[in-house]
Amino acid sequence: MLVSETVKKILESPDRTNVLATANAKGKVNAATFGSPMLVDGNKIRMMLGDNRTYDNLCQNPSAALFISMHGKTGMQMEGCRLYLKVLDMEDEGPEFDGVKSEIKKRIGDAAEMLKHLIKFEVTETRPIVDFGQGV
Predict the structure, then answer these.
(1) What is the CA angle 91-120-60, rounded to 5?
(2) Can you tell which superkingdom this protein's organism belongs to (predicted)?
(3) Is 14:136 a contact under the CB 8 Å cutoff?
(4) Per-residue pLDDT, 111
(5) CB 80 within 8 A of CB 127
(6) What does 67-130 look like in DSSP terms, one character per residue?
(7) Contact status, residue 39 vs residue 8, Cβ threshold 8 Å
């Protein structure tokens, strides 16, 4: 599914917090903050991960949810979206991997060396953070 212009604007904003929720094969849930989710081709999310619980979970279970909240408003006025994702591909090397890592390194410097895996997700569903059926 192609994401809406609203979701695109949220993903392009520097004033956001991204939390990715995953679960392993047994259903044990993990949630972690990430700074690298990027929208590509209008319906895919690309991000880089280290060797961590999130990566381990995605190797076992391809489903994830990305919670994106905009800074500033809280409670019922909170703005942002939830993206439901499914892993399409994982890469540990290659031109795309190198290009994405290079772009991230420009922002965070040598801390990018901890990034070992490029994950590509398909967006399967979008919802607002506070959902009263208004769509996003």
Answers:
(1) 75
(2) Bacteria
(3) no
(4) 94
(5) no
(6) EEEESS--GGG--EEEEEEEEEEEESSSHHHHHHHHHHHHHHGGGGGG--EEEEEEEEEEEESS
(7) yes
Model confidence band, residue 134 (pLDDT cutoffs 50, 70, 90)? confident
d(CA 34, CA 49): 8
Residue 57, beta-bridge partner list: none
The pLDDT tens digits for 96-106 are 999 999 999 99
Token pair of 53 as six digits: 């619980």
Which one-letter amino acid corresponds to residue 84? Y
5-128 carries CATH number 2.30.110.10: yes
Q: What's the pLDDT tens digit per position in 33-82?
A: 998 799 999 999 999 999 999 999 999 999 999 999 999 888 888 899 99
- Residue 48 tokens, joined: 């880089």
